[in-house]
Amino acid sequence: MDVDRFLNSAGSRRAFFRTAGVGLAGGSAVLLAACGGDDGGAATGPASGSTPDVEILNSALDLENTAVAAYAAGARHLKGSVRATGVQFLSQEREHAAALGQAIKQLGGTPTKTKAAYDFPEFKGQEDVLNFALDLEGTAVAAYIDALPKVSDPELRGTASAILTNEAEHISVLLGALGRPQVPSAFVIGGL
Amino acid sequence: MADRVSIADGEADTAVIAEYEVSRRALVRRGIAAGSLSLAAASIPALLRVRNAFAQAGDDRAIIENAVGLEQTAVFTYAAAVASGRLNAKSTAVARLFGGQEQEHADALTAALKTLGGTPPPKPTAPGDVPGMAAATGSARRILTFLIALEESAVAAYYDAHQKLKDAKLLSAGSAIMANEGQHLVVLRQALDLNPVPTAFATGKA
């Protein structure tokens, strides 16, 4: 999957996880169906071995590797406390990548490798970096919410929920740095 | 057409990481401070009961019933924080906003619970229904600390729930709510000048 296309298109993001064997959860529509109680029990539940967890985790790992590269590229444009925040988030994305890589190995898979180069838009200043990071984090949250119900291993679902919540926390900090409301919605579904 | 910046493989390991390592000790210290708050939260019986209820719940209906109870507790606690008059204007607005969002969670989960044939638990109606809350109302700092403890317990509860829920849609809903609780934590920690994101894995556990 071309990461650039993935980042620039919600449709591509959905397709990204579809190629990893993850059916479309439908984002907010599914959330409303679950919470509104009008579905009549159409939920399928987590896959029981039918969805390859390794492929899902490798898709997530690719996202995390992209986030690491993005924060590394953007950090030089950040200043003061925002820069400190950026490098902290970079470190946390690396922790996610390391954990996912380890989980993939434990499942007998091979972690997807970091790309030789990542092609990001030119950052002209701090605001560009923050907005790009915001899009990236929102994409990650949406992707994890799409993928999580399809992960068959309960412990991995827990780990995925802990990572996506961390990404949501990043979003709130980034929004604050941009002078925007930090918690705009009661249901965080990410997206572009 | 904008110029583009290509980041070669491995560049993330150089200057930026080095800078991070220089400041890591300070960040760790701040993380330890946040950890102390979590420890204080773990000593609050009501919050522990909520978490344990999640952990012990055997099916989706029981898990969602406990989630409704947790959200109702959060609604009540935020309302009490607003009514205390001890928060400044900014924190009062935050508490009012977050209380409204907790109500949205409660409403959505209650609707889901009813489709599962469940009944919502009784709502808290007095401070005594939330043990530990009365002792936490003496100052703005104590109130915010209690709210952090409450939100951390919520994150921990949803973390546990993600390992137990069977229904895919409930899992998605739980994820969206858990992420929102994490965002609440960011703002509350910032209000106390704590590291807003002290750990890479938001499990709600110290």
The greatest interface between two protein chains, and residues involved on each side, is: A-B, 78 and 69 residues
How many distinct beta strands of chain A? 1
Radius of gyration of chain A: 17 Å
Count every helix of chain B, treating DSSP H or I runs of 4 or more residues as helices.
Answer: 6
Which residue ranges of chain A are poorly predicted, with pLDDT under 50 across at least 5 consecutive positions?
1-51
Roughly what is the average pLDDT of chain B, rounded to an integer?
81
Q: In percent terms, what proportion of residues of chain B is strand?
A: under 5%
Structural class of chain A: mainly alpha
Please report the number of helical segments of chain A.
Answer: 7
How far apart are the termini of chain A? 18 Å
The major β-sheet of chain A equals:
none
Which shape of chain B, going by the Cα principal axes?
globular
Largest sheet of chain B: none
Low-confidence spans of chain B: 8-14, 19-45
Helical content class of chain A = 55-70%
Give an overview in words:
The complex is a heterodimer of chains A (192) and B (206). With 192 residues, chain A is mostly helical. Helices cover 63% and strands 3% of the residues of chain A. Chain A has seven helices and one strand; from the N terminus they run αααααβαα. The longest helix of chain A has 27 residues, at 80-106. Chain B is mostly helical and 206 residues long. Chain B has helices at 15-42, 45-56, 60-84, 89-115, 140-162, 168-191, and one strand at 4-8. In chain B, helix 1 (15-42) packs across helix 5, helix 2 packs parallel to helix 5 (140-162) and helix 4 (89-115) runs antiparallel to helix 6. Chain B is globular. Mean pLDDT of chain B is 81; it is low at 8-14 and 19-45. The interface between A and B is large, with 78 and 69 residues. Strand 1 (117-121) of chain A pairs antiparallel with strand 1 of chain B.
